[in-house]
Q: What sequence folds into this?
């Protein structure tokens, strides 16, 4: 396996006990994983991987998505935001208007 150019992490609210119980999960973060995978495939963005994470401790701004190595944190992510973020990534940019500050 080649190392990915970028990694996208989506908070799935998993806790130490293994239970997913946080705000991001309740706000549909897990459903976004499939959407992300599909969009990356449709756009030919083969160098990008997607992973779910444990709680990222920003529950009030969830669902949370992080793009590395850009260290770009995005909040209140939905399908429309994902489209904007992926378009920016294809241009080699981040999407500052959606980034958490």
A:
């Amino acid at each position: 396996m080649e190392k990915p150019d970028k990694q996208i992490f989506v908070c799935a609210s998993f806790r130490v006990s293994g239970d997913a119980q946080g705000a991001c999960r309740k706000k549909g973060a897990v459903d976004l994983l499939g959407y992300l995978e599909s969009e990356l495939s449709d756009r030919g963005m083969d160098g990008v991987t997607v992973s779910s994470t444990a709680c990222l401790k920003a529950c009030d701004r969830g669902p949370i998505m992080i793009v590395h190595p850009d260290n770009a944190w995005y909040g209140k992510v939905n399908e429309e935001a994902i489209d904007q973020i992926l378009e920016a990534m294809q241009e080699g940019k981040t999407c500052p208007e959606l980034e958490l500050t």
In short: The chain has a mean pLDDT of 90.
